[in-house]
């Protein structure tokens, strides 16, 4: 456990497989063969890369397998170096520091599911389809990618689940068209889970606008574009930390996280852009100005927690359980 109460350890890369063009799947085990913490579909892991960025990857193996974790990583040429480091340095027998798992994309019980994946966004949905199948739910998966060869796990999904899986390689069929599937709620009790590039997520949000609240859940590994462009931090406010007994001032262009850290209060964080959920903190009092890409609308409205790396306070005073 680390100071934030999360599991953190160095694991062994027990297996490495090329599962699509530019996608490598890694199976991680404890070097001493110990069980790893339990997880549920939708969970992700931090890889704490040597002298490099910390990156989040969804667990895509079998939650019942406590001896190993599996992730799949796309080499992102325009990325910030994390995926290249994974591809270039994590070979079988090497070790990697991990933290988590953490889940902000949990699969809720439902009679029907529509899963929508774009590219490497298939990873969190893979164990979800297995869970939906095991629960006897009625489910479909729409899975789009640049080419068939770039779509990790496409063949195994199609051969295991037949016409429940609709594969849409862009070079053969064009972009994934959500309209036929999302123009109207597909009956009461249908939940939609979507993970992929920002345009796909926004298309799903647009198409589900008239669905019952909470029907659509999305997972982002990049900040929402509407959040990234929002002006934030133009006002200072008072910050009270109840457990530390401190009263601080959050200056206009400084984050809550950096303010807390500068005051010597230990706080766990990773992405610092509101996507990973590591810095989620309980709010005692104050109206939060949310700027993260993790919390649902209901969770934002409840005001119970906030991501202190990006979110701020609308009023003059914020009280946190820190
Ligand atoms: S550090 Fe990732 S959400 Fe705040």
Describe the structure.
It is a single chain. This protein has 322 residues and is α/β, with parallel strands linked by helices. The protein has 3 domains: 8-101, Translation factors (Elongation Factor Tu (Ef-tu), domain 3, Beta Barrel); 112-221, Rossmann fold; 237-320, Ubiquitin-like (UB roll) (Roll), CATH 3.10.20. The protein has helices at 82-89, 122-134, 154-161, 170-173, 179-182, 198-207, 225-228, 256-262, 297-302; strands at 8-20, 23-29, 44-48, 54-58, 68-74, 95-102, 112-118, 138-145, 165-169, 190-195, 216-219, 237-241, 246-250, 280-285, 288-289, 305-307, 312-313, 317-320. The strands form 4 sheets. Strands 4-3-6-1-2-5 form a 6-stranded antiparallel sheet, covered by helices on one side. The protein has a 5-stranded parallel sheet with strand order 9-8-7-10-11, sandwiched between helices. The protein has a 5-stranded mixed sheet with strand order 13-12-18-14-16. β7, α2 and β8 (138-145) form a beta-alpha-beta unit. The structure holds FE2/S2 (inorganic) cluster. GO terms for molecular function: 2 iron, 2 sulfur cluster binding; metal ion binding; oxidoreductase activity. Residues 237-322 form the 2Fe-2S ferredoxin-type domain. Its cofactor is FAD. This is Ferredoxin. It holds the Pfam family Fer2.
